[in-house]
Design goal:
six-stranded mixed sheet
Length: about 900
């Protein structure tokens, strides 16, 4: 905190608050660095308080937003005095119990103040020193120095550049990577090119919808009380202890105590498996489909399949139950593409699943998909495959919770298709709450729709529609960097479209860091005329920009409502006034719009406080009947006056003051209540009266519409059956191409995706290590903590080795989300996984993060611990 700050103390920030913030940031920075420093005695300077901070006079506990993209969404409270957070704590609003659990925060949420008050907060609008509209010098992005500019200068520069690009190249030349506020201005200007494609969920969304006839790929699972009645739960590539911190692992533990057996299938012995003392089955990345087919083959061979269930509820299992072609025209609107209309045809009876998996009929020459066949591919012992197959087929009810990772592979749609087919073959979907689903994020361990929900913001501005919709102009995640560099992209099968991107806009987020082929993305950023980012820290996206505008965090705004698991709604409130010169995204959008000649009300007709009130007034909770939505909040005229908004008093279940004081509303659950989630129960009870929304009205083992849709998209092809296909850059490719290591991009305790990677507390606690199996390390002469270099055809990273037996041989584990730091040799010494990933769009346009073949070698250079690296502090 240096001279520039001292000179700006004025109406925006009081001297008392400035001094408090300076001291707080220094203490936090010191605490974060202490344990990482070789001088351990320095840690003693961190702990100075001898009395509980809770007791400090004038300090108040306030519910603070925990806004990052983690599945937990837990309760985060801050002790606030004069706008400074002295301490954080989590849920203490009621006694904790398994049936009515507290919503406890993890280490990431508890370090949120390091984000808000960190020394590396972006303080002022700034531009690259060598950038100007006339001479952008894009080659210097990521390396240039920064210059502070005023807000008026920033608005003028940005508006002038936007107008120039729209005039010279047209609105389709503006590419939006993230953010929702400034794109409203782009719509007023004539539109923009968006991006599309599934990321976290991999191949699950459209595949699940077409196979099962439901959009609930993440919520068609038992709720947490029904979970306790499952006799067997398979967590397939799911690790909520890392990726969905909060209650999911606790909910699984309650099921274990009730007698549920847990099996974890994962290349890594993960933290959830450890917590549940689960059976661990290690498996090679991208080979899960082979194991599933081996299980199904064994189940059928032993006569353990549920023929009655298959005949009644499914199509495509055998030659007598193939799609007839007599269904009505099937219309499906994918999540991110245009409407897809499918006219079915009679399927060839010889192309049935039974013959395929058993190696009979038309598939006799291919051979049976036996456990022995599967074992050669997936690396799981054939006897283990047989044991799990028999256990799953005979243990009723049993549920499979799949994480996103197994389906985040190239050509990944066969994985969810095969996994769902396994559930169908055993009659384990729709009966007694049993299910198979890609259940992750905030639905992990607790399936079903939300019981309590926020209202809408109430913004009524009617913006012009974007004339460049996703069905024609959007750039897919796997193609977008190549499209910018080479000027064309795939529209549909056999159709390409020219594109000339000259401006990249990134709102709050980190797409450059978090999408495939980051090194190619950096080159794309260097090619265009203008890159604009709005953020509160200099993350990777901001680093490779021309103009960066500092935004407020949720703690500096009027407040927000956060949905967590289905039973809770959290009211994150105003904690501190905007720091330095940061403004909200909406303020910035209005400021730029006004320089472009628009009025503020053309962008937003109401302010952010009114939007918050509308969300509060519109909150609903599901009544005890499980069907009727009721107003959640009682709001008085005094409440409306205190907020300074317009609205009408109303009656609800609890007072607004109580909601504000607790910061959370949680629906209490009891055994046998009306909130139980039993997916597909009505369909199982009467399939004729309650058909599912597939082309056939039944579950589809032979899914012609999914095959047709993927063929229509044009990236790759998929058979109507769930077959094992050789994955591009999967296990077989690695063996043949002498890149024998497969990269596993795991969620990591240190971050929520890329968020929190700048927090030294977390860097110290969880170093960015490269997991390697002990046998592989011994073969390569690598010891624990040795710097190693991991390379693919797309880039290379250098990180210290963590030698362990907890990962599958020939698999390398690396936490995703590290902020890239390229050295002079082009190595990313931070270990960002997308330095290594491939730009390969496949299937429905999902990302293949876990299809990566790599080479590993010892590194001869030095590598300091990243918790000792200087923070990206601009304008000290």
């Amino acid at each position: 905190m240096g001279k520039i700050l001292d000179s700006t103390i004025g109406s925006d920030i009081s001297r008392r608050k400035f001094l408090a913030l300076s001291a707080g940031a220094a203490a936090l920075a010191g605490a974060g660095m202490a344990g990482c420093s070789p001088k351990k005695e320095s840690a003693s300077t961190v702990t100075e308080h001898t009395e509980p901070i809770d007791a400090e006079e004038g300090a108040t506990w306030v519910t603070a937003a925990c806004w990052h993209n983690c599945g937990g969404r837990c309760l985060n409270k801050a002790l606030v005095k004069d706008g400074v957070v002295l301490r954080q704590k989590t849920d203490d609003t009621h006694e904790d119990s398994p049936d009515y659990p507290q919503q406890r925060a993890c280490q990431r949420g508890r370090s949120q103040r390091m984000q808000v008050f960190g020394a590396d907060r972006l303080k002022y609008p700034m531009k690259r020193k060598n950038w100007s509209p006339e001479e952008p010098h894009g080659e210097l992005r990521g390396e240039d120095e920064w210059e502070r500019i005023s807000w008026d200068e920033a608005y003028e520069l940005v508006a002038t550049e936007i107008k120039k690009i729209y005039d010279e190249y047209g609105p389709e030349s503006v590419f939006v990577l993230g953010g929702s506020e400034l794109p409203r201005v782009f719509q007023l200007m004539g539109g923009y090119t968006p991006r599309w494609g599934q990321v976290s969920w991999g191949a699950w969304p459209d595949a699940y919808a077409m196979i099962m006839g439901s959009p609930g790929y993440s919520s068609d699972a038992p709720d947490r009380l029904t979970l306790r009645k499952q006799k067997l739960v398979i967590l397939w590539g799911a690790n909520p202890a890392n990726s969905s911190a909060g209650n999911p692992t606790y909910n699984y533990l309650q099921a274990k105590k009730a007698g549920t057996k847990f099996v974890v299938i994962d290349p890594r012995y993960n933290e959830t498996a450890e917590a549940l003392d689960a059976q661990w089955i290690p498996i090679r990345p991208s080979t899960d489909t082979a194991m599933i087919l081996g299980m199904i083959n064994h189940i059928i061979s032993q006569g353990l399949h549920d023929k009655e269930y298959l005949d009644k509820y499914c199509v495509g299992f055998d030659s007598e139950h193939m799609p007839s072609g007599e269904y009505p025209e099937y219309t499906y609107k994918p999540l991110e593409r245009n409407e897809f209309v499918f006219a079915s045809e009679p399927a060839d009876p010889s192309q049935n699943f039974y013959d395929y998996v058993m190696g009979e009929g038309a598939f006799a020459s291919e051979g049976a998909k036996t456990p022995e066949w599967a074992s050669e591919i997936c690396g799981v012992d054939a006897e283990t495959i047989k044991q799990l197959a028999e256990e799953y087929a005979t243990t009723k009810p049993a549920t499979i919770f799949a994480g996103g990772a197994p389906a985040r592979i190239n050509e990944g749609e066969c994985l969810p298709h095969a996994m769902l087919t396994l559930g169908m073959v055993c009659g384990q979907i729709g009966r007694d709450g049993a299910s198979v689903s890609g259940t992750m994020h905030n639905s992990a361990s607790n399936g079903g729709g939300a019981l309590v929900s926020p209202g809408g913001a109430g913004v009524k501005v009617e913006l012009p529609a974007n004339p460049f919709p996703q069905k024609q102009y959007a750039l897919n995640n796997g193609e977008m960097w190549n499209a910018i560099l080479n000027g064309s992209h795939t529209m549909y099968k056999g159709e390409t479209r020219d594109v000339n991107i000259q401006m990249i806009y990134q709102g709050m987020g980190g797409a450059l860091n978090q999408r495939q082929a980051m090194t190619q993305g950096i080159e794309a950023h260097k090619k265009v005329e203008f890159v604009l980012t709005m953020n509160y820290v200099l993350n990777t996206s901001a680093k490779y920009s021309d103009v960066v505008l500092p935004v407020t965090t949720e703690w500096e705004r009027p407040g927000t409502l956060l949905t967590g698991n289905r039973e809770i709604l959290i009211y994150g409130q105003h904690i501190t006034d905007p720091l330095y010169e940061a403004k909200s995204d909406q303020e910035i959008a209005i400021g730029i719009a006004e320089k472009l000649g628009f009025k503020a009300e053309e962008v937003y007709d109401i302010d952010e406080t009114q939007q918050l009130f509308n969300k509060l007034a519109g909150c609903t909770v599901l009544g005890s009947d499980g069907a009727t939505k009721e107003p959640l909040l009682t709001i008085t005229q005094d409440d409306i006056k205190e907020m300074g908004v317009t609205g009408e008093p109303q009656e609800g279940k609890i007072a607004l003051a109580e909601f504000k004081d607790k910061g959370i509303y949680q629906v209490e659950r009891t055994e046998g209540d009306a909130y139980t989630n039993l997916p597909f129960a009505k369909f199982i009870e009467d399939p004729e009266a309650n058909p599912v929304a597939t082309a056939s009205g039944k579950f589809e083992i032979c899914c012609q519409s999914l095959a047709g849709y993927i063929d229509h998209v044009g990236f790759s092809e998929k058979d109507p059956l769930p077959k094992y296909v050789r994955i591009t850059e999967g296990y077989e490719d690695g063996v043949e191409n002498d890149r024998p290591f497969q990269l596993l991009t795991q969620h990591y305790q240190r971050r929520s995706h890329h968020v929190f990677d700048n927090v030294n507390w977390l860097r110290e606690a969880w170093p960015q290590e490269l997991w390697i199996n002990a046998s592989d390390a011994a073969e390569l002469g690598i010891e624990n903590d040795d710097p190693v270099r991991l390379s693919s055809p797309y880039g290379s990273v250098v990180r210290p080795a963590f030698v362990t037996q907890r990962i599958m041989p020939k698999t390398i584990g690396l936490g995703e989300g590290a902020w890239a730091e390229l050295n002079a040799d082009g190595d990313d010494i931070a270990g960002a996984t997308n330095t290594l990933s491939s730009p390969i769009p496949t299937g429905q346009g999902h990302t293949g993060f876990n299809s990566n073949n790599c080479i590993i070698e010892k590194y001869s250079g030095e590598l300091d611990p990243d918790c000792e690296w200087p923070q990206r502090v601009i304008f000290e």
